[in-house]
């Protein structure tokens, strides 16, 4: 499954176009490697996503083409969630 589609279906990111923009900006890695929106993801992969001042690391548990809002949380497990400290 494409990265941008997984992010939308799992509701980590609400819109597929936003998921594409974030990945094209280099803010997402898959297993430590820079990812593009078209990158393939599979069960067991670890994604690191930078949302502004927050870094979220998740492990993919399940892939589905569609899902209900209440089932979306079952698609991944949050491993880490950290704030990024800015030095000014």
UniProtKB/TrEMBL annotation:
InterPro entries, per database record: RqcP (IPR025490), S4_RNA-bd (IPR002942), S4_RNA-bd_sf (IPR036986)
SUPFAM superfamilies: Alpha-L RNA-binding motif
Gene3D superfamilies linked: RNA-binding S4 domain
An MF annotation (GO) of this entry: ribosomal large subunit binding
Record GO biological process: rescue of stalled ribosome
Keywords, alphabetical: Protein biosynthesis, RNA-binding, rRNA-binding, tRNA-binding
Domain RNA-binding S4: 1-64
Domain of life of the source: Bacteria
Cited function: Key component of the ribosome quality control system (RQC), a ribosome-associated complex that mediates the extraction of incompletely synthesized nascent chains from stalled ribosomes and their subsequent degradation. RqcH recruits Ala-charged tRNA, and with RqcP directs the elongation of stalled nascent chains on 50S ribosomal subunits, leading to non-templated C-terminal alanine extensions (Ala tail). The Ala tail promotes nascent chain degradation. RqcP is associated with the translocation-like movement of the peptidyl-tRNA from the A-site into the P-site.
Oligomer status and interactors: Associates with stalled 50S ribosomal subunits. Binds to RqcH, 23S rRNA and the P-site tRNA. Does not require RqcH for association with 50S subunits.
Protein family (similarity comment): Belongs to the RqcP family.
Protein's UniProt name: RQC P-site tRNA stabilizing factor
Organism: Fictibacillus arsenicus
Lineage, highest ranks first: Bacteria, Bacillati, Bacillota, Bacilli, Bacillales
């Amino acid at each position: 499954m494409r990265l941008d589609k997984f992010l939308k279906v799992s509701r980590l990111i609400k819109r597929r176009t936003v998921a594409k923009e974030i990945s094209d900006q280099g803010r997402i890695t898959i297993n430590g490697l820079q990812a593009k929106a078209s990158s393939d993801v599979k069960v067991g992969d670890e994604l690191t996503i930078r949302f502004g001042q927050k870094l979220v690391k998740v492990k993919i548990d399940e892939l589905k083409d569609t899902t209900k809002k209440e089932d979306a949380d079952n698609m991944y497990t949050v491993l880490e969630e950290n704030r990024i400290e800015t030095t000014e």
